[in-house]
Design goal:
- The chain is α+β, with helices and mostly antiparallel strands.
- The chain contains 8 helices and 13 strands.
- It has helices at about 5-20, 25-45, 65-75, 75-100, 105-135, 155-160, 230-240, 290-295; strands at about 165-170, 180-185, 195-200, 205-210, 220, 240-250, 255-260, 260-265, 270, 275, 315-320, 330-335, 345-355.
- The strands form 3 sheets. Strands 1, 2, 3, 4, 6, 11 and 13 form a 7-stranded antiparallel β-sheet that branches. Strands 5-12-9-10 form a 4-stranded antiparallel β-sheet, with no helix packed on it.
- It is elongated.
Length: about 350
């Protein structure tokens, strides 16, 4: 007797064989599939890697929106950019064709362009002329004497009939390439024969000197009003004579002195070139004296200055500086006022120039 379990196994085997038993056409198809699979397995190592490195698996997960955009743009963005660029080129051509269709003939177009350019140049020329008229200083020839701003000095103004004192504009070098014209006060009444050109400064008042013992330790720079040193120099050269008043009132304060047999100049003034001058108003240049020293009239027969007596009395030395090569005064220096009883006052007048070189 065959066990029941064996009979069941036999039936299952028969069924399996029936399933495996296929039609001849099906067997041939499977054989060709096997051949193709074998060919693929052989070709992949020979011709390259499979799958390629840049292969995008269909089930690849998109991490974020940027990855999604990059994936979407990979094969389309380049074509879109090229298309947009082409569209812009076409639009530019269309606009150019429209402009060409509306433009007048070539000769007329050039004429209109030239006329527009001429109008622009005319406007620029008018603007330039307007600025030139506002800024230009008129300088007629020497034989023209109608405008007071072109004369070299107040003396020349008075010679040409201007007799009223006041502020005038002068041009001392009377040339187009020298100093600029500047304003001065003209005194037309003090001297019947000539006009006097007057230039003021910031140190005309009587100023105290006290507490400065060392020679020249007190210093006062002079700033002139309305004119530079170059303009003032041009005026001096154009004038026949110039002068400037200088005065020092002293109480036990000397202009010149001696310390252990050494000559010391306590007070001095400086020329426009910055050189220290040891002579005082009313004396000759280089003399080292004051006016009284020139005339022999100094107090107590002092050979140089009244202040050099250096006693406890108020004295003074004063006079006009007249050397055109050194005027105007650019600085004042004083000393010998260190003790409480020593003091002085200095006064510097305006620069005055008269006459003119014809």
């Amino acid at each position: 007797l065959v066990p029941l379990s064996l009979k069941k196994q036999e039936k299952q085997l028969v069924v399996s064989l029936k399933v495996i038993h296929l039609q001849p056409t099906t067997r041939v198809t499977m054989q060709w599939c096997g051949v193709l699979l074998l060919a693929v397995l052989v070709a992949v190592p020979v011709f390259g890697q499979f799958p390629p490195e840049d292969w995008e698996w269909p089930d690849r997960r998109i991490e974020n929106n940027q990855d999604l955009q990059a994936l979407q743009c990979k094969h389309t963005c380049k074509d879109v950019r090229a298309l947009k660029r082409r569209m812009r080129e076409m639009e530019a051509r269309v606009l150019a064709l429209e402009d060409a269709a509306q433009a007048p003939p070539t000769g007329l177009l050039k004429t209109l362009q030239l006329e527009g350019r001429v109008r622009e140049l005319e406007q620029l020329l008018l603007k330039a002329n307007k600025l030139s008229l506002e800024q230009e200083v008129i300088k007629p020839e020497d034989n023209q004497g109608t405008d007071p701003s072109v004369f070299t000095s107040c003396a020349e103004l008075k010679y040409n009939g201007y007799t009223e004192s006041g502020t005038y504009t002068i041009d001392p070098d009377h040339s187009n390439y020298g100093v600029e014209p500047f304003q001065v006060f003209c005194d037309m009444t003090s001297d019947n024969n000539t006009g006097i050109t007057v230039i003021g400064h910031d140190s005309e008042e009587r100023l105290l000197v006290n507490g400065w013992e060392t020679a020249g330790s007190y210093s006062k720079d002079i700033t002139y009003s309305g004119a530079s040193m170059e303009q003032i120099t041009a005026l001096i050269k154009a004038s026949q004579s110039c002068r400037q008043f200088l005065k020092y009132e002293c109480f036990s304060s000397a202009i010149h002195g001696r310390i252990v047999d050494i000559d010391v100049t306590y007070a001095s003034w400086e020329s426009r070139q910055g050189d220290k001058m040891d002579y005082w108003g009313g004396a000759s240049p280089g003399s080292g004296k004051c006016a009284c020293g020139e005339t022999g009239t100094c107090a107590r027969a002092n050979p140089r200055c009244n202040c050099d007596v250096n006693d406890k009395r108020w004295r003074a030395d004063e006079g006009f500086l007249t050397d055109k090569t050194t005027l105007p005064v650019s600085r004042l220096n004083f000393g010998d006022t260190g003790h409480e009883w020593e003091q002085g006052y200095h006064t510097l007048g305006k620069l005055e120039c008269s006459g003119y070189k014809q």
